[in-house]
């Protein structure tokens, strides 16, 4: 499937800031399931800093935006050709050992309820266990935007019983790690189908390391594994670690962020 | 006391390295000695060298007691120590380059993967990045104890930012001022070249994007840090700028320092700030001590950070057990310096052994430092031992145990005159393009009679450490 992405983030400061530093993970890496046809990232008034491929296989690009500045627009545009690999991250080059993704972060530290949620499922069949955990998370946390925020932890979302893809993903990786399976947070894009369902175009899902298969994606709220509608951007231990844009402003301005993402399928 | 190796007196006679000190001591009347001791203390106060200790309360500007009686090594003794320390520093750096690269030592089954990948000090952010000259730990502080004429053990390795080297330099300075005649009577190797060697070591690992003479700075958390004195002292002697996070900023591909003449590009940062606080974009977002964007510049080759982020995984107490294996694996050599036999409380068999012999053991927290959270079995009360028994049982992976070592003693000035006190030694090995070890180090002394804990936070003092010329 040929997908066209346009992703715009507008940062506004109520009083001008003295400068901004950003670190981007905004360029999809190539694997058997996706091939980048063309891709560009532009930062209004920005100066490109160092760029490098990190150990997780993601392209990291630094930017600095000199001040005084009160509005910054980050525009991502590109075309990606995707193939359905039923979630398997085949042909992907990275250097970090899966076992590194067994550690918890503040967002995934389990409490009693998460520990309970991670129980059950078949022993000895990692793939089936991962599917079971993804189902359990989808059953326990209903999709509902607006009730959680950027810093909500897996335990908090489970207690609420509601959340968005970030919360499902945190809960699922928390459960997988408890069962001894390396798990990580993936940020990316999802093509919104004309199926009447509500989807988040700026999306997130979990990858769980399943023995010989390697990394396999699980989208708990959509009860599926990533297919040709998904574009994978970058990964990390949790949402903060995998964030496509991290930034820090120097100055006292309060930041307001406006994000629009459109992912459309091109006619063949 | 006869169970302990006395570095000066052996079976009634004076060991050769100390030969000339015997006359010096016997010629010094008690009145002169206390005068000199007061003079030394005044000098330390004037220089301003104090060492605040975390969590101890009391006077933050407390002086570490300085003992005037030097600790002496012969050229032969030092030669062997030097080879051992350099060997260990090379192996530790090879280990770091390996675990952030292809992890051959884990693939070969010589070190369990979970000790490395599950380690808090293992930085995912630098996997696949090889720092200039493949060096991660540029100053390796190796804590040694001695139990016999030829027997030394490594207590622990310090690969991040070992402190205390300012004491090595100051102790020497003060001894030379107070007892110049000693330095005529004995041929003592100098240590004063350390700051220049450190500067050269740091300059030798400038990043590939650096053009011309590298600009080196020392990054300090600020004057509230217990080792701030040392940071400013070293910056002074090295002739480099001492900066805090707010003095640096990232612009484009580089890190810059604010100066009165405008921004100046920085090539090498000798940081005395922990990994977690280096860059709020990469590590702890609430850190005010670091430089936003620093890690991206580092990983794209625009600046060098010393020690390299992630170096701490090599000096973890659980990884320590495997350092002799690193020496064999990477260097194909037999370790010159031995480890202290160490029991991992996480392993059921070893834990049982530890719990059955607590009263003879030293128990340490895996991530602890500075002598906090430590049990010295033979000196502990019944209650302390019982408390440790429950702590170990509750969280066994947090603890390791070692036999109580018969630490060597060196004569020390005490109220009653001169008496043997237990000592350890921390030499500072510099690793850059070359590997260098200044002949000397920091000798810490347990001033309380019979005490085996030399940490300054637990009543330890310091001594000048001499290496005699061959």
List keywords for this structure.
heterodimer, A: 268 residues, alpha+beta, Immunoglobulin-like, C8orf32 fold, six-stranded antiparallel beta sheet, four-stranded antiparallel beta sheet, 4 helices, globular, B: 470 residues, Dna Ligase, domain 1, 2 domains, five-stranded mixed beta sheet, 14 helices, 23 strands, 30% helix
CATH fold call of the largest domain in chain A = C8orf32 fold
SS element count, helices of chain A: 4
CATH class of the largest domain in chain A: Alpha Beta
**Range of strand content of chain B:** 15-25%
Helix content of chain A: 10-25%
Provide mean pLDDT of chain B, rounded.
Answer: 91
Order of strands across the widest beta sheet of chain B? 3-23-22-19-18
Radius of gyration of chain B: 22 Å
Query: How would the global form of chain A be characterised?
Result: globular
- Secondary-structure element order of chain A, N to C: EEEEHHEHEHEEEEEE
The poorly predicted ranges of chain B are: 52-58
User: What gyration radius of chain A follows from the Cα positions, in whole Å?
Assistant: 18 Å
State the assembly state of the protein chains: heterodimer
Q: Given the helix and strand composition of chain B, which structural class is it?
A: alpha+beta
Q: Percent range for helical residues of chain B?
A: 25-40%
Runs of chain A in which pLDDT lies below 50 for 5 or more consecutive residues are: none
First-residue to last-residue Cα separation of chain B: 31 Å
Got a strand count of chain A?
12
Q: What share of residues are in beta strands of chain A?
A: 35-45%
Give a structural overview:
The complex is a heterodimer of chains A (268) and B (470). With 268 residues, chain A is of the alpha+beta class. Chain A folds into 2 domains: 101 residues, Immunoglobulin-like; 151 residues, C8orf32 fold, CATH 3.10.620. In chain A, 16% of the residues lie in helices and 44% in strands. In chain A, helix 2 packs across helix 4 and helix 3 crosses helix 4. The radius of gyration of chain A is 18 Å and the shape is globular. Chain A starts with a strand and ends with a strand. Chain B has 2 domains: 294 residues, no CATH class; 63 residues, Dna Ligase, domain 1. In chain B, 30% of the residues lie in helices and 23% in strands. In chain B, the strands form 6 sheets. In chain B, strands 3-23-22-19-18 form a 5-stranded mixed β-sheet. In chain B, helix 2 crosses helix 6. About 1% of the residues of chain B have low confidence. The chains are: A alpha+beta (268), B alpha+beta (470). At the A-B interface, strand 1, strand 3, strand 4 and strand 11 of A face helix 5, strand 8 and helix 10 of B.
